[in-house]
Every structure is written in structure tokens, then in C-alpha cells.
């Protein structure tokens, strides 16, 4: 469907949990997190109902996120329900990769279309500093397992001045050595991310060009998102830049979000949302649910307001609570 700005909305990011097996500094505090109870988060049946209603109004692609989606019990079953029963064109995940090694085979069998793996550094110590727990080798093994199973992967890297500035060139090299697209995501001033010094994507492109030579703007589209890709000579895949802050892409935004507790969110930066859990538990029909989605999506905010500082409707929850 189209919203009031004539944007086609065909993509839903669904957070399946607010829990995570890592504690990345820009996303979660180290201790003292009150996670939602089992009853507060949507069941698989409820997520399935929302997905079917969303499909009715034109959503074709679903990304499962969190928290860490692979820590949700039986996530493989949900992927299969969305792919093989709801017949979504694409069911993808964004994951920290820690559990991929053991799960890649089952994920492939369930019909997972692709995986985005978050990886900010290839240095073991820096990895521990950023994620506060977890082993880099688990992520590297997980990437390998996906490639062996034939699950296409992309790497998402969030560059932060005080942590991984010296890793950017190495991370980009993954797209040279393997068929892995690498995307640099500008840190957004959301939740714990506000405390850190982001590195703009223009600066990263200049750095990569100084090492790998002049890049060409690519026409290839590697995913559903707002990334702008560049091709470097001798690289197997492109290098993408997701520049929400320095190059706002809201005019082509194609997505809405569902939080793990069932709030339909129309924009990451705006608090505004519709409580679908309440409606689902009151027994809303599929037809009514599609209408609720349609009526909400049509009024999707025009853009985020990162440059305005504080806004009235600003989202105050952290990335892990919203679903990144
Ligand atoms: N746990 C999964 C993962 O790490 O991929 C999925 C959830 S995580 C919140 C999704 C993505 O959001 C990760 O790539 C993470 O680096 C990114 N992220 C978290 N906080 C961010 C922020 N303030 N700005 C930009 N990206 C952020
Ligand atoms: Fe967990 Fe992903 Fe947040 Fe890191 S970015 S703490 S892996 S949810």
C-alpha cells in the first residue's frame, strides 16, 4: 500500500524479543535491564496474525529482529510459519551471529531468505569491549556456516569513533575476500547511541577510497533497505552506506515496525504507535486488523527529526526495546 506521502510500504520489521545474549555499549546497559515477561510479548500465533493482515495490505517482506531474534525459543518455527504458511516473499533476520553456527542448517530448512549479521570489529579485544560478552570466533563461525548452507549474508557495522575507527578498512575487506556485502550504519541518536561519537558515512567512504581506490556508485540493489552502495575495483560485493543522519532517506522509507510487545511503530524516531496486542487479545478479526494497519500506515510520519533535538513525540525507549 501507499501512505499519504506516496511511499510504498511493503516491509515490516518485527521484533520477537527484547532479550539479548550480548550487551553492546550503544544498545544496552551492562546490568539492570527489566526484560518483558513471556505474557507481555506477542506469541507466534499473534505475530502470524499481524503478518497475514499486513500481507493483505501489501507487505511482502519481513525482517525478524530484537533484541537478539535467535534467542527466542523456537524461532525457526516462526520463520517457517511466515515463509511457508503466510507465504511471505522474503523472511530475513538481523542477528549478532553468536548462535548462527548451531542454527544455520535449521534456519535454511525453515526457509530463511537471508541474514544480516552485525559485526563492528574483527579484533577480539575490541569485540569484547563493544559487546561486553560473547566471542568473535562464534560470529565468524556463524558467517561461515551460513555461507556453507547457502544463506546469503550481509554485514552491518556501526562505526564509533572511540571504538572501531581503526577496523573500518578491515571490515570492508570482507566484501573483497568473500561474497558478502558490507554496510556501514551511521549511529543514530537513539537510546544509548546518544552517548557516542558517530563517524559519518562520507568520512568512511573517503577513508575506503584512500585505501581501495576510487569507488563507483552502484546500481545493484542488495537488500530492502535505504543503503546506497558503492563498488570498489576487485571487490566481490558492494559496500553500502545507511546514512539516516547525514543523508536522510525518509522520502523513500518503505517500512513499519512491530515491537515485541505488539506496538505497531510507524517511524523509529517517533513514539507514536498502535497497540495491536490489546486488539489481538480482544479477538479482533483479520479483516479489522488489516483495516487498523491500513488506517495507521497511511498516516506514517513524513520523516525522523534527528536534527531538531528534542521533539514532543520523541521515542524514549532504547533500540533493544523498540527492535533495531
Ligand atoms: N541483535 C541483533 C543485531 O545486533 O543485529 C538485532 C537487533 S540490533 C538492535 C539491530 C542493529 O541495530 C544492529 O546492527 C546494531 O548495531 C544496530 N544499532 C543499535 N543501536 C543503534 C544506534 N543507536 N544507531 C544505529 N544502529 C544501532
Ligand atoms: Fe544485542 Fe543487537 Fe543490541 Fe548488540 S545491537 S546488544 S547484539 S540487540
TrEMBL record:
Entry keyword set: 4Fe-4S, GTP-binding, Iron, Iron-sulfur, Lyase, Metal-binding, Molybdenum cofactor biosynthesis, Nucleotide-binding, S-adenosyl-L-methionine
Name of this chain's protein: GTP 3',8-cyclase
CDD domains assigned to the protein according to its UniProt record, in alphabetical order: Radical_SAM, Twitch_MoaA
Function: Catalyzes the cyclization of GTP to (8S)-3',8-cyclo-7,8-dihydroguanosine 5'-triphosphate.
NCBIfam families reported in the protein's UniProt record: moaA
Residue sites binding S-adenosyl-L-methionine per the record: 26, 67, 118, 188
Keyword Nuclease part of the UniProt annotation: no
Residues of the Radical SAM core domain: 4-224
Residues annotated as binding [4Fe-4S] cluster 2: 250, 253, 267
Family according to the record: Belongs to the radical SAM superfamily. MoaA family.
Binding site for GTP: 13, 94, 154, 255-257
Catalytic activity: GTP + AH2 + S-adenosyl-L-methionine = (8S)-3',8-cyclo-7,8-dihydroguanosine 5'-triphosphate + 5'-deoxyadenosine + L-methionine + A + H(+)
Classification via InterPro entries: Aldolase_TIM, Elp3/MiaA/NifB-like_rSAM, MoaA, MoaA-like, MoaA_NifB_PqqE_Fe-S-bd_CS, MoaA_twitch, MoCo_biosynth_MoaA/MoaC, rSAM
The record's free-text note on cofactor binding: Binds 2 [4Fe-4S] clusters. Binds 1 [4Fe-4S] cluster coordinated with 3 cysteines and an exchangeable S-adenosyl-L-methionine and 1 [4Fe-4S] cluster coordinated with 3 cysteines and the GTP-derived substrate.
Organism: Candidatus Scybalomonas excrementavium
